[in-house]
Write a structure and sequence with these properties.
alpha/beta, 8-stranded mixed β-sheet, 13 helices, binds 1-O-phosphono-alpha-D-ribofuranose, binds manganese (II) ion
Length: 406
């Protein structure tokens, strides 16, 4: 029997979402703009990388053709491969949110057709009654922030005040999210987690998708650093996902990185934590060795989004892609004759775009394995086709959303 390995390059969009304009994202193109900056010499960084974007392995898996199909543009400066391997295509998202849970759940066969709750961009972000209840129940002297913000900027701004006052830094973004930044030792990591768990309960009636704990260390601006102890408190998916279906069928889902958190720990009997793309890839490769016939290894590579996309760091994003590309032969070497790998993404986060939020884009689909012949699978109308393909590959009955491209 076969095994499946699903790798989500968090935020690696390829532009061209048909509904981008209604998100203010018309023209956003994570891959296209990174390639353009690289080709123009605008993504050189001493000691890190230089010149045109080099992704030879993903190009051989059809990435250049994917970009052309998805956005209408060829990524600048990238070299055309001599021949292609595997299935290649792109997918549009039908879930309304361009957030991580919506993207992952849709990949796992469950599009999100309802609207999440969001916090206002003007004035205080959080309702007064909520803040009062939070402070009373968690015995807090108040909160800092209470606005839309970039997570690294807001700890620079309020970090010292937070250490002095003991007030947690609370902020949001264009996602359905309540984020709490607090110092790992001055405030305490367990106390931060307890606060986020309490918030999770308080925010359910407002239909907020996620509460995120954002612990940091350091004593003053310029020295504050977020740690790998980030923790997401997601609401559970609205229907059984591919992961639940696999577990019901007696399979093991190996959830690497933040997959467990994203699925609210449903259908993730085995969770493997790692911080940083390199450690995540090492963990994924180990899980590939351990996976049995019929299993799924599902890995999220969060750095693309968290460390480079939201930070609008083009050279950093380009270097992370180039590094990831070099790991692909190691992935290939772990495959048995019936196995399949799918590389995809959950939304865009164009590092050249205004603001610091996600961007509505199509995502790439690159599927490969020793027994998978090269074929163009076109533009799929939902990410759910990815989950249905994994389901078909692993011998599950079809689910209610999406269609397998096998
Ligand atoms: O700016 P930071 O804290 O990285 O937050 C970003 O990360 C969150 C989850 O992806 C997004 O909602 C966005 O706000
Ligand atoms: Mn994401
Ligand atoms: Mn993000």
């Amino acid at each position: 029997m076969a095994r499946a390995f699903l790798f989500v390059l968090d935020s690696f969009g390829v532009g061209g979402a048909p509904d981008a304009a209604s998100y203010g994202d018309e023209g956003a193109d994570t891959l296209g703009h990174i390639a353009e900056f690289c080709a123009a010499g605008a993504a050189d960084r001493a000691g890190l990388r230089a010149g045109p974007l080099q992704l030879p392995n993903m190009s051989a898996l059809g990435l250049i053709e994917i970009a052309r199909m998805a956005s209408g543009n060829l990524p600048a400066g990238m070299e055309m491969p001599e021949r292609l391997f595997g299935l290649h295509g792109a997918a549009s998202e039908i879930s309304r949110g361009k957030d991580t849970p919506s993207g992952h759940w849709e990949i796992a066969g469950v599009p999100v057709r309802f609207d999440w709750g969001y916090f206002p961009t003007e004035g205080d972000a959080f309702p007064e009654a909520l803040v009062e209840e939070l402070c009373a129940r968690a015995d807090l002297p108040g909160i800092l922030g209470n606005c839309h913000a970039s997570g690294t900027e807001i700890i620079e701004r309020f970090g010292e005040d937070h250490i002095r006052s003991g007030k947690p830094i609370c902020y949001t973004s264009s996602d359905s999210v309540f984020q709490v930044a607090a110092h790992e030792t001055h405030f305490g990591l367990d106390r931060l987690y307890a606060l986020c768990a309490l918030l999770r309960d308080l925010l359910d009636p407002l239909n907020i998708g996620r509460v995120i704990a954002r612990p940091f260390t350091g004593e003053k601006p310029g020295r504050f650093q977020r740690t790998g102890n980030r923790k997401d408190y997601s609401v559970p998916p609205p229907e059984p996902t591919l992961l639940d279906r696999l577990v019901t069928a007696g399979r093991t889902v190996h959830a690497v990185g933040k997959i467990g958190d994203i699925f609210a720990h449903q259908g993730t009997p085995r969770e493997i934590k790692a911080s940083g793309n390199e450690a995540l890839m090492a963990a994924a490769l180990r899980a590939m060795e351990e996976a049995q016939d019929g299993d799924l290894v599902f890995t999220n590579f969060v750095d693309f989004d968290m460390v480079y996309g939201h930070r609008r760091d083009v050279p950093g994003y380009a270097a992370a892609l180039e590094q990831f590309d070099l790991w692909l032969p190691d992935v290939y070497r772990k495959l048995g004759p019936e196995d399949m790998v799918i590389l995809t993404a959950d939304h865009g986060c164009d590092p050249t775009w205004r603001g610091t939020d996600h961007t509505r884009e199509r995502v790439p689909i690159m599927a490969f394995g020793p027994s998978i012949r090269s074929r163009n699978i076109g533009i799929r109308s939902t990410y759910a086709d990815i989950g249905e393909t994994v389901a078909a590959h692993l011998g599950l009955a079809p689910g209610p959303h999406g269609r397998s491209f096998l």
